[in-house]
Structure of C2H2-type domain-containing protein:
Amino acid sequence: MNCSLSCFDTSVCCSSSFESLCDIDRETSDIVLSEVGLLFCQRTKNFSVCNVHLEKILVKNRSKNKSVRCAIPTLLSHHKKTAPRAERNITKDAMMKIHSSTGIVLAIGTPICSNCRKHLSSGKPDEHLEVSVPSEEISVETLSEETVTDGESQTESESMCLETGDSQYSEASVCVMDKLQKLNSFLAISNVSPVKEKLIPLSSSTDKTKQRCLSKALQCMSAICETICPGEGDLLFKSVFSAHKPEKSSTPDQTALILKDIYISAETWSLRRQILSILSRNYSFNEVREMIPDLTKYRFYAAKLHSDEVGCGLPVSKERLTRNKIDIAELEHFIDFIISSDVVKDLPFGMKTMKLTTGEIVAVPNLIRSLAPSSLINQFIQFCDSENVGHLGRSTMYKILNDCAASVRKCVEGLDYYIAEGGKAFQDLETIIEKLCISSEKKKELKSKLLNGKRYIKSDFKVHIQRENAVPDHCQMFALSDSEKCFSQSCNTQHKHSCEQCIDLADFLAEISTLTQNGTWDNKDSIVFQVENAVEAIKDWKSHAMRARNQEGAKQDLLKNLNENQALITCDWAMKFLPRKFREGQSDWFAKRGINWHISVTLYKQGEELKTITHVHIFSSQISQDGSVTASVLCDVVHDLTKQVPNIQGVNFFSDNAGCYKNTMMMVALKDELGDKLKTYNFSEAQDGKGPCDRRASHNKACVRRYINEGHDVTSAEEMKQAIDVKQKGSFRVRVVDIVTNLDAEKSQIKPITGITQLHNFSFDVNGITVWKAYGIGEGKQISWDNIGTTEQRTNLLVKVDWTITAPQLLEVEVMAQEEELIEPNPKKQKKNSINQPYDCPKDGCTRAFKTQCALEQHIIVGNCDYHNEKTTQDKAKSMYGQKVNSLFHGTRVQLDCYLNDCRTSESVKGWALKGKKKRTVFSQSQVNYMKEKFDIGKVSGRKVDPFQAADEMRQLQEEGKYVFSRKDYLTGQQITAYFSRLALKDRKTDLEDFRSAEEETNKRCLKQEILDSVSL
């Protein structure tokens, strides 16, 4: 057996022991072959190598790895005269990539600098690396005398050769190829990379190609000198070139002398280094030292390094360092605070964009902030101090508020359905005014009326509302009396006056309707339909404000008349909590299932003090938030409440109008379970009156986020309870439960209460239920229990983790009686008030302010707002002056809360604010097909169609130049939203029979296991 690598290094003799490359590990084989310029393939894997050559090649490779300078051959290098510091060593993958682009095999582990690495890794071959022979087939043969089988042919060779099948080359070309072949054979023996055929003349080649050719020529001559004088090749090479080297002038040129003078006069080292980097390119250290005697080697070579890394004569670029010392938990806490429901209101119509430093655009909904930045920051700092939580610095918070900008206005209670539709209606009317063919002055006038009307409904109108008033638009008894006698009440005041602001709004709506009807439009039906819906939405908004103010009286009267034996329970289903981990992988972001939780806030009296208890029910599994589950939760709250406060004999419930609360089965289930303890159940107006529950939910979610930021996970109901208990220190009673459905319960025989959606107040006694459409209006309608029936409880609660022992919280606010005086109180110094009492009540029209966040929360729980009309300083002065003058001369009090007009009579009819029954609309087949098509787009593509956008497209849809839908077929965004919701519910609806089937399968499996166990015994 012979050593296959002996021809690559003849300086040592082979040993008697050999190893095959296929028996050596692949990594070592690749290193050995790359050192001799070969690749691991079908032929080379059968090479054998002696231990002497193997050890010498590996030692050479290890020493090469330790080199700190770039060792890329001149043929491939992309740096200046001296090799720069190496950045890393070539890996096998990098070697293969360089070979694929250049045809040259570099040794694995060869040091390489950053310039060479970037250029070679780009995969673009240089101009000088042309293919040596444009042949159809090139075969590489080994230098051994063995016969190597290729799978298809066998070739014997003693040297590496190039074969070509091109017969059109001339005899001279053949001679050149023969010379090149012999030269490459010599170079291979000398361990020098081969020379490739030059296809382009040297005179027409680029400077880079000429440099490569010169470098290769120097390598060949160095190999020849080493062959002539073994061991003294370098000496011979220098002797040959020194004989022809021209003498270099030792006198520096004029430019160098100028640079020397600039160097000496420079005051800073950075400038001197820049100048010295220019001199170091053309002069050695000794030559420069002759010009600058005090120059040190460190400064000279530092300048050369500056020239390589930064650039010749270029200044060092200053990198901008960004400090990031903000605590992420504190930042998230502040962001949660400024987007809470007490600070901002999310506008459903309108977007704004924020631009990041990377250029990325982030779209967010347009928000309305109810506080100025200084007041908001004062509130947040005071809140953090009371909770013993750290916070960001003031300047940082101001910067965040400036970057995350939002409109600053006086906010309303919340953008529910009516307010959202009303706000969109004003926007639609403003758009239509722009399209009207009228003068610019008229458009300006209409826009001014529109803005005044919108401002009036949002703020002043709610303050004008009273129990009895001479203006029919402001009188609760008149506006909420139904035609049915039991729901109607006579007003002692004659309605002879009218409100100028109400009349101006009505006149504006009538005027815009007339202008639209008389205008010329391309699609008149679409414009008229928009105006009609907008006018109707604005009137609904006004009616909604009247009903909301009236229903607030129910809660205030309950608190005013509350005794030690009764309690008021406000309840609400909180928005589902999405599980979250402290370190969350990308796969954990998607397909999360929220955790259901219910909040109940109880107010009761103990002596002259008001106390509160908060119950939180967290469900460990997915449930349906229906009336049966809700009734079980409320009964559980009452049972625990009577254990905590035994003297409570009666409870009053207050909630929103959700279907899980307002249904006949719910009322019957509560009565059957609680008996005489159930006194009343009052419902707030839509999206109104749930302040206590929303506040508790917001606090709990903030506590859970802080708990997660401390390194914990909250992925289950049990972990959520633990987070709330730890952060709230047991101030809330939290219980983890699951539901048990009684499938064997008999079907209820309940007769639904007729028109229950129109009813808002329920009073319970032994004979039946007394219901009202509006609180305090009429004597109510009595419904006997015999006409309703009874029900068997189908859902029970299974306790997983029981309550935490807590103590009731004392409220430091007193229930205020409604003021009879209508005179506005003396003005206070606003500046002092804003500092000492930075927390204003979020309800529009309420003038109360508080010193602490806790006091504000207690005020929201009690709901004892003090409504006064907002006025300018001039209006306040005029009102006060008029009141004092009239009382001085006439001894009478003048009502100045609104402008009265005796010349016109209001067109409002009795009961104008009652919620009317909406006519059931039967969709045509074309409407159903259109909505189904839009819904399917979202199912297929994953991008849900906006219902309001679909409504707009419906009015503009054309086929063959004609509009597809007429005015009677147009649908609103709410109608399309409701239909989409029904389709989605239909897709995920679960049949109750699945529960029976699952139970039967479980019983069969258990029975089978018992039989097997008995047989085995």
